[in-house]
Each structure stands twice: as structure tokens, then as C-alpha cells.
Amino acid sequence: xxxxxxxxxxxxxxxxxxxxxxxxxxxxxxxxxxxxxxxxxxxxxxxxxxxxxxxxxxxxxxxxxxxxxxxxxxxxxxxxxxxxxxxxxxxxxxxxxxxxxxxxxxxxxxxxxxxxxxxxxxxxxxxxxxxxxxxxxxxxxxxxxxxxxxxxxxxxxxxxxxxxxxxxxxxxxxxxxxxxxxxxxxxxxxxxxxxxxxxxxxxxxxxxxxxxxxxxxxxxxxxxxxxxxxxxxxxxxxxxxxxxxxxxxxxxxxxxxxxxxxxxxxxxxxxxxxxxxxxxxxxxxxxxxxxxxxxxxxxxxxxxxxxxxxxxxxxxxxxxxxxxxxxxxxxxxxxxxxxxxxxxxxxxxxxxxxxxxxxxxxxxxxxxxxxxxxxxxxxxxxxxxxxxxxxxxxxxxxxxxxxxxxxxxxxxxxxxxxxxxxxxxxxxxxxxxxxxxxxxxxxxxxxxxxxxxxxxxxxxxxxxxxxxxxxxxxxxxxxxxxxxxxxxxxxxxxxxxxxxxxxxxxxxxxxxxxxxxxxxxxxxxxxxxxxxxxxxxxxxxxxxxxxxxxxxxxxxxxxxxxxxxxxxxxxxxxxxxxxxxxxxxxxxxxxxxxx
Amino acid sequence: xxxxxxxxxxxxxxxxxxxxxxxxxxxxxxxxxxxxxxxxxxxxxxxxxxxxxxxxxxxxxxxxxxxxxxxxxxxxxxxxxxxxxxxxxxxxxxxxxxxxxxxxxxxxxxxxxxxxxxxxxxxxxxxxxxxxxxxxxxxxxxxxxxxxxxxxxxxxxxxxxxxxxxxxxxxxxxxxxxxxxxxxxxxxxxxxxxxxxxxxxxxxxxxxxxxxxxxxxxxxxxxxxxxxxxxxxxxxxxxxxxxxxxxxxxxxxxxxxxxxxxxxxxxxxxxxxxxxxxxxxxxxxxxxxxxxxxxxxxxxxxxxxxxxxxxxxxxxxxxxxxxxxx
Lengths: 595, 326
Known about the structure:
Oligomer: heterodimer
CATH topology of chain A: Alkaline Phosphatase, subunit A
Structural class of chain A: alpha/beta
Strand content of chain B: over 45%
CATH class of chain B: Mainly Beta
Largest interface: A-B, 19 and 20 residues
Shape of chain B: elongated
CATH superfamily of chain A: Alkaline Phosphatase, subunit A
Number of domains of chain A: 1
Radius of gyration of chain A: 26 Å
Number of strands of chain A: 17
Number of helices of chain B: 3
Distance between the termini of chain B: 18 Å
CATH topology of chain B: Lipocalin
Strand content of chain A: 5-15%
């Protein structure tokens, strides 16, 4: 064996010292990651996606990064969040159904726990192991027990609302059954909220403080900014409520047309795109009295204020990152967690007179005067008509598997993006792709086992080739995406989509759409393309098999067909009865009655 | 409550409590009197005052009769209509006072036990907003209305055709022209949400008086009287509100046959409670009293006031009919 000489030792040490800084430098080059989630933010609600709502900070991210127009989430919040943080299908990760709607036949079945189960390993856990600080602010909605909260699932620091919604001003929750919202801060359940609490502002303040507290560590950070906004109730500071006075009195049809026009001009949607038909139970605004237009328009004003206020606080975060020199090294991923909310949640929670929830609503949520909208104690949601606007040009909204329920706007910016600034990508993307994408960026591996258990496979595909401009989509035309929620089902493969929905939103049967030609899902092509239906049904069966999909024996839509107006096709200009105008005779034919 | 129901309540409240409430011409006007309302609305007010003091409450100059003690029951009935003028909220009203007064008066060294009753001098009133939100020409305007800082111009003119007896100083009619110019001003404090509305209201005004050349055979002249009414108002519930009222009277020196009297410089305070009974009907109850009134020459006056205002608008009435039909 060769003896080690002193000069050799000195040489080795010198080499080590020479290498160490470069390793540190390489470590320092790992980008920060900020995921910004808008709760119920619609596809068309950002300026960069055709909205008249002013979102300059989000638009700036879009202009520096890339926009995606074929990005899919799930149809409601916790399923989307579960896939974002686990990369695993909902039916395996614990959100096979929303906690609030787990069906009798789904109880005690693995994958249907109603919280992010411990069989999955989370994105923050893996990023933390890869050397990241991991922060979360905002809505969690993936479990409340001590082993289910953000601190237990990989977040080093957090300030989180554990519930699915509630007041933005205090701890008031939605129903008498769960009257108080739960919050955690760094793994402790809060007994009260901080002074001067307003959800969107406080979340931003907290995140900035987390970032600042660890700035000296030299480690990158991963921040999950799960804003409660713009989910109803539309609570927002007074000076944000009146920034679009009377702008929406013109009604939803006109605003949808304007948004689509801008989307086509921007290249978000192709020329010739048709709007989804106005839903059959929504009136044409032209038949409404000015007072009704005003009241309904004011709800949309408030919603616009919610989005603008959220954008403002996102701007504060961006500004802070610029100030501390971290902005250029930060990847931003921005999207809404599902389609815009078209269901009247307040009607659902307020119950009918004489019920427990009605009493609770009378005490906690009865400030219904429009002048009070936005204050504590008010509950405003904007309804299906404006949800359709938020989802322009698509059909339907949150809770459903039409494009309006699951397709959302996505912005990615930062050092991972090598494409032309402001570019638009139409490739097929999915929320579960984020996990493999970020693990790859962070240099982390997805494990085969975790804590001695085999972990479910990731269903997503890394976006990095897309972000590098090498391809438009991480998927081939053979790859498919599939969804099931509340018994509704859908499969997307290439340009095609197979969809089964409860009546009257669907036909209670499989429908087939070509989304490239018909993104608004107006034309069911199932009868014309039985082979395509068959092929996609096979994909569906494969999905069911791989993910243990159990269709619920009960669900929120069981009696919908009976409760809703019968579905009819909405044709523009029909019936002429309501579109006719007063006939004005020629002046030279006017006469007074003869004596 | 659904927004539509709120719309009803707002409309009803504004009709009943707002600008349609006609002026209690011969005393202070109640708080919330000059809130603007929906154009083309109508109102019939009935205002009943029970007053006592050393001045004739039918006489806005509040000429003090030292040592006198009057008791009066005064009613005002009128009609008011709101409209839009140059896109500003405007209101025109006519008010007819009526009632009875009795008491002991001393004029030129003589003591009279007198009483009078009948109709007083009808008064025409015009008010227009000059600073603040534009006229409320439709229900969306009404629903979005917030006074913020609103300034109005006010003009009153009384026509001297009320019952007058030149044999006695105590009369219902005043036998002279008189009127008022004022600047009703409203400052909104906080949100404009029923149940939480709060205002500070000022009404600086000057009363002008013509000459009564047949005042028990003498000539009565009165200098202009400056009157400043102030109200701090607050909703107690969506339909129930209260106010603390103050008034300052200054000037108004009366001269009888060239013999000048004392000018006024008096303060009064009171409280008012208001309640919206239904879509058309509003009730207020108030009490006011002068405070620095211990000297015989000081103005001494107190009054209980009850007002009922019935307001209506064709659109609102039609909506109500349809609602009742359901």
C-alpha cells in the first residue's frame, strides 16, 4: 500500500477546499419555489387570460414566464390540493371523495379517508430532505388531526386555515356543525387570530416573515401560498369593494363575450372559439330589471375586488423578493384550484327556517345588506352566471367535470422557464405534474418506499421539457388523464374528452367532445364516434382499476334532476317573445282617431 | 334577508325617513330630514307638536314674551315630492300648519289671557342637493346611494294667509311674509349599512321676516334670526334609529313700534327616536328643550313631537302589489 505523504495530504485538503465552495455555489443556485393557489379562481379571471379584472402582478409573472391554456386540476379544492402535494391520484391519496361527502360505500376504504393519508409522501417532505426550507400559508383542507396538519406533512413553518373556508376576518366557520375555523401556526392550533387579521394580508405577512427569518441559512425555500381568496364569502376591506362601480350591470353575457374576444386576441383561445351556452337556468340579463342587474352585478364587483386584493398582496410578496434579491432565482407557479364556484353555498349552509344551520346563519351570517357586503357576518357568492364568466369560454363550473369545473389558468415563471417571455402553451398539463417537475428541479428523488411502506406511483409527468421549450406537452396523444368526483367521471386523451355527469348537467350517460374544435363542449359526438367512445372507456376502466375508484353510493347530486329546472338547449334570440322590440309605425302613417 | 328584501327595506326607509319628510317649519326639523331619496316619490306628513314656553311656537322668529307661558298643540300636514333637477336631487313641498294655542301674554304692559286656533300660514319649500351623490333616478341609484359629504340648499317661503286676529298678540297666522335660507349638510360617519348608519348633520339657516304692521295695532319688525341645528344620529337596528339634537338661536331681535327688544342667544337640546313601521310609514318621536333659559328674557321653549310620514312611489307600490299577489 502506498504511503500517504504530507504533500499529498496538503494537496487533498486543498482540493477539498477548492471543491467545497463550488458545491456550495451549486447548492445556492437551486431556485426558490413559490406555488400560488387562488381558491376558486376562474380560468378567465386574470388579465393575462382575458379578464377585465386588474391583476398587474400576476400579469407581470405571465409576461415574464409562460401561460398554459390546457391545464387541469380537479373539480373541487381538496382533491386538487391532495394531488398537488402528493403527485398521486385522489383515490389513492385519501381524497377519493371530499371529506364532507364521503359516501356510505366509501367509508373506511383506503384512499377515501377525507384527508391526505399517510401512505403518500408529500412534496414539502421531499423538498425539505433535498435542502429546502418549506413554508405554507393559507388554506390547507387536507386534514385537521395532529398527524394531518401542515407541520406533520412536511412544512417547516406554517400559518394555515385547516378548514375549507369561512370568514376572512375571524374564526367564524360556515355551519353550526363546525362553528369555528381551525388555524395552525408552526404546528400549534391557534386559540385566536393575530391582531389586524385579514386572511390574504396576514398570509402574505406571515410568509414574508418566514422567508426573512431564514434568509441567513443560504438554503432555498419552497413556499405554498394557498390563498383563501377569492372563495366565497367575499370578505374584503372596504376600499377594495368599489373599484368597478356598476361595471357589471351590463350582465354576464356581455362580459363573457368581451373576455372571449380578448382571449382570442391574446392567443389564449383560438379564433372561432364559441362560448359555452348560457346555462339553461340562468336568464338572459336583458330581461332583468335594473335593480336586479345592479344587485347581481355588485356581487361580481366584489369578486373582482377579491381577485384584485389577492393580486395586490401577491405583488407585495414579489416586491419583497425583489428587495431581498431572491426574485430572479424564484420559480412561480400560479393557478386556481378548480373551476369557479357556481353553487349557492350560502343557501346550502343557511338551511331552512327551524333548522340548526339556519339559526347559526341568523346569528353569524345574516348581514345581507349590499352595503355591508364584504364585512364580517356577510356571505356573498356570485352565483352560476358569474361563475360562467370566470370560466369563459367553458361550460359549467366547480364541482363538475365539464371544462368549467376542471380546466384552469396556469402561469409558470422563473429560472426554470427557458421559453420566450410571455409565451403561451396549449399542451395538456395536469396538477399532479407539479410534484415530479419540482422534485426534478430540486434534485430530489421520489422514493419507492416511505417509512417502510411502498408509496403509490406518481401520476404526473415532469414539465421541464416543456418549460425548456422542447415540447408543448409532457404527454403524448396516447396518454390520458381521468377524473372522478361525486360520481361524475371524465377522461381526456389528446383532443378528446369522454364525460359522464349526472342529469341535468350531463346526460347520465357518456358524452364525447372534441375539445380542440369544441372547447365549450357544445356538441356531443358520442353517437358519431362509437369507436372513440369505446377506446376511451377502456382508458377509463384502466383508470378505475389502477386507482381503486369506487363510485359513491350517495352524493350531492342525487336529487338534482328533480330539484332543478328541466334542461333545454339555449339558443341565442329564443324565444322571440323576449327579444322583440316595440314596433314603431312610419311617421307619415300616424293619425288621430276620426270623430 | 335576501337582497331583494333589502331593496324593499331601503326603498321604504328612504321614502319614509328621507327627504320626503316635510319640514316642521315652525320648529327645528328632525334629524335625517334632508337625506335624499328616490326621484318622483311622494309623501304626506302629519307632524304633531305639543309645546310650551314663552314664545309663540307658530312664530319662527321666536319672539320672547317675558313672563308669558304658552301651551300649544300644533299639527302640520303637507305634501312633498322629490324630483331630479340638473341631475341633482330636489324636493318641493307645501305645508299647512294648524292647531291651537293658549296662554298668558304680556304686551306693552298689558296682560292677556288668550287663545287662538285654526290654520296657520302655508309654507312652500324647495331643496336641492349641490354637493354629494347625483339624483337617485332609479332603484340602482337608490341602492348605491351614500350621502358621504352632502350639501343642500334650502329655501322656504311662508304665505301670510293664516288665521290672524289683530286684536291679540297670540295668533296662528303671522300676518307677514317670512322665509328661510339654509344649507342642510350631512356628513356620513362609517359605513352606510342599515343598522350601522351614523351621521353628523348640520343645518345653518337664516330666517328673514317681513314687517307685521298690524300687531295689536302696532308694528312688529324682527331682525334675521340665525339658527343652527345639529344632530348626531345613529341606527340602533335596521329600522330603528336615534339622534341627539342641538340647536342654537342667535339674533332675531324684535322691535315693536321702534322699541327694540333683546336679541336671542339660546341653546336647546333634545333627543329623537325614529322607527320604520312598514314600507310606507315612518314614525319619529322627539323631545327638545331650551337649556340656558333661566332669565325672563331668555327663550324658553320645550316640545314633544310625533311625526308620521306616509310615503309612496308608483314603482314601489306596483312592486308591492306583485309581491302580495304571490
